[in-house]
Amino acid sequence: MFNKILIANRGEIACRVIKTARKMGITTVAVYSDADRQALHVQMADEAVHIGPPPANQSYIVIDKVMEAVKASGAQAVHPGYGFLSENAKFAQALEAAGVAFVGPPVGAIEKMGDKITSKKIAQEAGVSTVPGYMGLIEDAEDAVKISNQVGYPVMIKASAGGGGKGMRIAWNDDEAREGFQSSKNEAANSFGDDRIFIEKFVTQPRHIEIQVLCDTHGNGIYLGERECSIQRRNQKVVEEAPSPFLDEATRKAMGEQAVALAQAVGYASAGTVEFIVDGDKNFYFLEMNTRLQVEHPVTELITGVDLVEQMIRVANGEKLSITQDDVTLTGWAIENRLYAEDPYRGFLPSIGRLTRYRPPAEIAAGPLLEQKTWQGDAPAGEMAVRNDTGVYEGGEISMYYDPMIAKLCTWAPTRAEAIEKMRVALDSFEVEGIGHNLPFLSAVMDHPKFVSGEMTTAFIAEEYPDGFEGVDLPEAELRRIAAACAAMHRVAEIRRARVSGRMDNHERKVGSDWNAHLQGHSFDLKIDADQDGATVLFEDGEGLRVSGQWTPGDQLAEMTVADAPLILKVGKVSGGFRIRTRGADIKVHIRTPRQAELARKMPEKLPPDTSKMLLCPMPGLMVKLDVAVGDEVQEGQALCTIEAMKMENILRAERKGTVTKVNADAGDSLAVDDVIMEFE
C-alpha cells in the first residue's frame, strides 16, 4: 500500500480523502493557493505545498505546479478529487511518466469517456441509447445557431470537458443559442482550460439518475445502485438521494448492467459514474460518464457501507475488488443536501465573505457505514445517521475564486420518510452566519409535497419556484407553535432583565402573563402560565400549547418541544422580539404587552427606498462585459452587463424599458453587493 498520497484538490473533497487516507494509515499531502493558506484541508493534511495565486487557472489546474508539489513531497500517488484535474488525461499521463499512481481510471478511459463528445460516440457504437445531438466541434455562435435548429429547440449547450454545471446553458431560440454558446465557451475555458462545446436535444420533464460503478484492473466490475439527482438549479445538483424513489428493481438492474458493460468496454478501473436521463415510462438514455468520484458519493456509501475513496485507493494500488455484485445490498435511504454560499433571496447569486458562525449539527454514525468511520465524530450509533462533509470552519473565508459549496449534509434512515424528517431537523439545527446561503431553500424543498411524494423532475425548481425563492409562509398551526415558544422565551428574557442589579429601591418591575405575538401577518393574544418545567401558553380561542426546552437568553439556537413535538429555532434578536428561522421561513416575531400591541397597530409602515431606476450589483464579482452606454435606450430583457463570480458568468438584464443616464462601472471593475452599476430614466 502507498505510504503517502497527495490530494490535488481543495475544500470538502480534499478533507474527505484525507479522512479515509488517515483511516488507512497513509500520510497525506495537501496543495493550496494563496487564498487557501488557512483552509481546513491544509490544516488536516500531514504536509502542505503552496502552488500559486488564487485563480484556479494559475494554481489548481496548472499541471506543472501540481507535479512540482508531487516531486517535492515524494508522494507515491495522487487523488484528484472532483473538478480541477480529475478528468484531465494529460495530468494522468504526467503522473504515469513520473512513476506516480493516479487514484483514478487509466489514461485511455479518461480520454474516451471523460470527453463528452467521444463518450457519446462510443456509447452509440456500443448500442447504448443516447439523446439526439451534434457530437462534432462547433466553431462559432452562428454555427451553434445552425446546429441548434437542426437538432430542434430546446437544446442543451455543454462544455465537452468538466462538469458541475459549468459551461452549460439551455437555449430555446436563436438568440439564447448565440448567447449561451459564448458564455458556455468562456466558462469552460476558465474552469477547465478547454473551451470545446457540443449541443444535444434538451429532453423536457426528465429525471436525472446515475449509476455508481466500481471496477478494478483485473477485469472485475460492479454497480452500487443509483442516485436520484433530479433537483438541480442551472444544471447544478442541489439535492441527491439513494436509492431513487422512481426506479423499480428491473430498471435498476438494466441500468446497472449497462453502466458496467460500458465501463469495461473502455478498460475502466476505479470508481466512476454513468449518468442517465430517464423519462416517465422508465426509458433511460446515456448522458455521459464521469471518470472520477462524484460530489454526491456519500449517499451511495451510506446505503451500501462501501467506502468509495478507500476502494479507489486500493484499485490504484493494483488490488482486486473485495466485493462482488452479489455482495452489494442497498439498505435504508440516504439524502444529501448541498449547502451553497448562494443567497436564495437574491436569485441564488453567489455570496462571499467570512463565516462569522458555522455550527453544523452533530454527526451521528449509524446504518451500513457505522463501522467504516469515513466521517469524523464519535457520537453513539442510533437508528438514524447524520453526516456533514465540509471544507470550512467558523472564522474562515468563502472565496470568490472557487465553487460556492460550503458543505454536504447527509442523513440516513431505514425509510425515505424518516431520512427526510431527519434532514429537516438537521437543516434547522445548522447555524451559518456572515454570508448568504441556501439553507432556507433546502428546508423548503424537504417540506415540498412534490419532493415528499418523490414525483420530481429536473424541472422541479423552475416549475415550483418560477419567480425565485422568497421564503416560506408557514401554516397557522406552525405559526402558533412558534408564537408560543417565542412568547415563553421572551418572558424568560424579560424576567432576567427585570432582575438586573443596581435598580432603584421600590422600583421593582413586574413581568406580566398577558402578551401578544405578531408574526407573518398573524396576531395572537395569549396568556402564559409558567412553572419549573416549562410553560403552558393559552391562546385567546382557548387552545393551550405546552412549551419546554433548552434556551437561555443570548443562545442562537433553541431546541424546544411544543405540544409534544420538537421545534428547533435559529434565534436572533430584533427590537421587541426575535428573528426566527425554521423550516425555510425567516420571520420577525414581535412579543409585546397588550398596550404595546395596541400602539404598534397605529404605527405607519416603513417603506423601503426606491431603487427601481437603478441596476444594483446582486453579488460580489468582477465586471467582465458592459453592453450599454449612457444615452442608450434599453428594452425589457435586454442584456446590460455580465458579472463573473465563483467561476460563473451572470448576465444582468433590464427589467423594463428605459434610457441609461449614468454608468458607474466598467469592464475589469470589482463590485460589491448593491453597488449601483447604472441608473435609468
UniProtKB/TrEMBL annotation:
<dbReference type="Pfam" id="PF00364">
    <property type="entry name" value="Biotin_lipoyl"/>
</dbReference>
<dbReference type="GO" id="GO:0046872">
    <property type="term" value="F:metal ion binding"/>
</dbReference>
<keyword id="KW-0443">Lipid metabolism</keyword>
<dbReference type="InterPro" id="IPR001882">
    <property type="entry name" value="Biotin_BS"/>
</dbReference>
<dbReference type="Pfam" id="PF18140">
    <property type="entry name" value="PCC_BT"/>
</dbReference>
<dbReference type="Pfam" id="PF02786">
    <property type="entry name" value="CPSase_L_D2"/>
</dbReference>
<dbReference type="InterPro" id="IPR050856">
    <property type="entry name" value="Biotin_carboxylase_complex"/>
</dbReference>
<keyword id="KW-0464">Manganese</keyword>
<dbReference type="GO" id="GO:0004658">
    <property type="term" value="F:propionyl-CoA carboxylase activity"/>
</dbReference>
<dbReference type="InterPro" id="IPR000089">
    <property type="entry name" value="Biotin_lipoyl"/>
</dbReference>
<dbReference type="InterPro" id="IPR005481">
    <property type="entry name" value="BC-like_N"/>
</dbReference>
<protein>
    <recommendedName>
        <fullName>propionyl-CoA carboxylase</fullName>
        <ecNumber>6.4.1.3</ecNumber>
    </recommendedName>
</protein>
<dbReference type="InterPro" id="IPR016185">
    <property type="entry name" value="PreATP-grasp_dom_sf"/>
</dbReference>
<dbReference type="InterPro" id="IPR041265">
    <property type="entry name" value="PCC_BT"/>
</dbReference>
<dbReference type="InterPro" id="IPR011761">
    <property type="entry name" value="ATP-grasp"/>
</dbReference>
<dbReference type="Pfam" id="PF00289">
    <property type="entry name" value="Biotin_carb_N"/>
</dbReference>
<keyword id="KW-0547">Nucleotide-binding</keyword>
<keyword id="KW-0067">ATP-binding</keyword>
<comment type="pathway">
    <text>Metabolic intermediate metabolism; propanoyl-CoA degradation; succinyl-CoA from propanoyl-CoA: step 1/3.</text>
</comment>
<dbReference type="InterPro" id="IPR005482">
    <property type="entry name" value="Biotin_COase_C"/>
</dbReference>
<keyword id="KW-0092">Biotin</keyword>
<feature type="domain" description="Lipoyl-binding">
    <location>
        <begin position="602"/>
        <end position="681"/>
    </location>
</feature>
<feature type="domain" description="Biotin carboxylation">
    <location>
        <begin position="1"/>
        <end position="466"/>
    </location>
</feature>
<feature type="domain" description="ATP-grasp">
    <location>
        <begin position="120"/>
        <end position="317"/>
    </location>
</feature>
<dbReference type="GO" id="GO:0016042">
    <property type="term" value="P:lipid catabolic process"/>
</dbReference>
<dbReference type="InterPro" id="IPR011054">
    <property type="entry name" value="Rudment_hybrid_motif"/>
</dbReference>
<dbReference type="Pfam" id="PF02785">
    <property type="entry name" value="Biotin_carb_C"/>
</dbReference>
<dbReference type="InterPro" id="IPR011764">
    <property type="entry name" value="Biotin_carboxylation_dom"/>
</dbReference>
<keyword id="KW-0460">Magnesium</keyword>
<keyword id="KW-0436">Ligase</keyword>
<dbReference type="InterPro" id="IPR011053">
    <property type="entry name" value="Single_hybrid_motif"/>
</dbReference>
<dbReference type="GO" id="GO:0005524">
    <property type="term" value="F:ATP binding"/>
</dbReference>
<keyword id="KW-0479">Metal-binding</keyword>
<dbReference type="InterPro" id="IPR005479">
    <property type="entry name" value="CPAse_ATP-bd"/>
</dbReference>
<keyword id="KW-0442">Lipid degradation</keyword>
